[in-house]
Each structure stands twice: as C-alpha cells, then as structure tokens.
Amino acid sequence: MADEIELEVNSPRQMEYQGIGIRLVSLVIDSIIFGLIFGALENISGAGGMQRDMFPWYWGVLYFVIYIAYFTLLEGSKGQTVGKMITKIKVVREDGSPIDMSQAFTRNILRIIDGLFAYLIGAILIWRSDKQQRLGDSMARTVVVKAR
To answer: Is the distance from CB of 90 to CB of 145 less than 8 angstroms?
Structure first.
C-alpha cells in the first residue's frame, strides 16, 4: 500500500513543473551564496586584493569548477541547492524519482549553453517546453518541480 501511495505522489501527472520565475529567484539566491563563499575564498588566499589585469587565469577555472560542483553535489545528493530549498522547488527525474550525480552533473555542465546571453537560451527553452525544461534538464531527463 505504501508503494502505491509513493508512486501516486511521484506520478508525472501530479508533478507541478516550475517555470522561469521561481527558478530565477532560486538561482539568484544560489549566486549570492556562491559569491559570498568564493569572495571569502579569494580574501583568505589574498587574491581578493589583486587588480583585474593581474588576476590569474586559474581563478576563473577554479570558480567554474566550484560553481558546477556546488550545484551538482547538492542536487545529486538532495535534489536541491540552498536556493531551491528556500524557494521550495527540487530537481527530480521525469518520472518523479530522485536524480543521481550523473544526471546532476549533466544538467549543470550544460549551464554553459543554457546560461548564454544572461540565461536567455535557458529561458526560451523553458518557455517552449511542456515540462518547463531547459537544455540541461532535457539532456539529463530531469524536471524542476514543487517540493513536497
């Protein structure tokens, strides 16, 4: 009986796909948190006082790696980043079951494309999708839904 209830709750018909507005709020929250973390890291290492023309290239690579890791590890383990927890949304498979690390990595590495032109590419794809999916979601077979 409990299995039937679980399947019913996670049924794709009952999932509330989340659109661009709430996802943007979640991303802004995550970006603020990430900026604070990375800013602290820069200050601790002494890189925060460098002039931009002297900013080592590897800080950009490190920023990118930590950014992707933040989203991948939190979504792959909990289905939510801090921003998603606050906005009460989560990432799940298209069938409603939890995603794994591979799916989390796929959807987040594709932020490179979705994020082009201030996330305009991702926004257009979300608006055009019946499941509100950006490219990363489509390729990873994930959706963003209301957390229960």
So the answer is: yes
Q: How far is CA 133 from CA 55, 63, 83, 125, 141, in A?
A: 36, 26, 18, 7, 9
Higher pLDDT, 12 or 8: 12
Report the distance separating Cα 16 and Cα 68, nearest Å.
26
Q: Within 10 A of 140 (CB to CB), how many other CB atoms are there?
A: 24
Spatial contact of 82 and 66, defined as CB atoms under 8 Å apart: no
Cβ(126)–Cβ(17) below 8 Å: no
Average pLDDT over residues 104-128: 95
pLDDT at 9: 47
Evaluate the CA torsion angle 133, 134, 137, 143 in order and state its sign. Answer: negative
pTM of the complete model: 0.82
- Let me know the angle formed at the C-alpha of 65 by 114 and 133, rounded to the nearest 5 degrees: 25
